[in-house]
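Hey, I'm writing a tutorial for new members on how sequence and structure tokens pair up, and I'd like a real worked example in the thread rather than a made-up one. If someone can provide the structure for the chain below, I'll link this post from the tutorial.
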Amino acid sequence: WDACLRVIGDHTHWVRSVTFSPNGRWIASASHDNTVRMFDAVSGTTLNTMRGHTSWVVSVAASPDSQFAASGSYNGEVGIWSTASGALTKVLRPPEDAIHIKEVVCVAYSPDGRTVVTGSRLEIKRVIMLHIWDPDTGACLQSTIVGGDPTYVRSVVYSPDGARIVTASRDGLLRTWDSQTLVCKATYNGHTNQVQSVVFFPDGAKLVSGSWDKMIRIWDATSAKCTQMLEGHANKVMSVAISSKGDLIASGSEDYTIRLWDAQSGEALATIEGHTKEIWSVGFSPEGNHLASGSQDKTVRVWDLQAIPKQSSLQLMGHVTSVFCMSFSHNGAQLATGDGKGNIIIWCSNNQGANKGSSDTCSVVRTVAFSPDGMMLAASGHTTIGIWSVASHVLTQEIQLTLKDYGWINHLEFSLD
């Protein structure tokens, strides 16, 4: 069963941002083709193509009531769009006598929909600002300077209660701001490269961030301490999202993959492949069964999470000291492991238990190997090789080697016959 429900290829340039509407009926995407597009979440049919920006559109957010979408562009403006008609209802920009905004990099609605926050770079180089806007009147309600160019804000999000705003920046830091005063209240330090994306857990107690350092971090939102690190991507993490139930984390990367994680344990659950270039944005549907992704390959993809096989792991208990080696039988039905006290355990993949034995020939088992037919097992210590019958556990042969310079056996295997 193909987990990719549909590929939407209407954009003619990179897709920088995607979001599901809170009512689950549509998906919005922002692109370097200067447009925002809306698609039916079920059929993938294009509902609206919003034109008006004169430069790349790099961020899109849905209002809590799903009636509007806000978009941020490299033309320095924020567009407010009617999702019913696709019409541009308001343009958010500073007064004519204010310093000109060059780029609006990220945009987010407050939980009550009454305000919009943006992270921007001014025409004057190395000046980064936050603005809070009234989306109905277009008025700028509050603003503050974040800092110089290293503080370039890549992502912004409101806390679920609307009291805080968190930003992710080029300098590798997360910052918490009072949403009324825009006073910085806390700094989160841990990433070693640009932080590209940040989201709150639904209860507001924790945060998730993704960085160019290839890491995903989970933070305590009160103490600003990192509580977990999720590692697995082979390249920059460009986007993170969390499901409405708070049980799943999704991450999109420049390694062309999406990964799913257990939000509580941090366990890697699945790797989703299909995009042919880096993934800029991921977002869950409200019910958490689907995931949307936007990529530099110019497509929006919708994934059925229930159709994705989940990775699983099994903890095998039996060794009491370090395990030095392991080998699967050729048919995959058995796994042999050897430890630092000369013990060998053969585990059965059909849940029929394990057979444990002690090697009198090896004080330390450094390598093990099954014969091609799975009938015999060879194991070596420093300079001794023992061969056992897998069925009877009887030692059938012992080979003693003389090695120069106190060497030991690092590898062994049976010939194919």
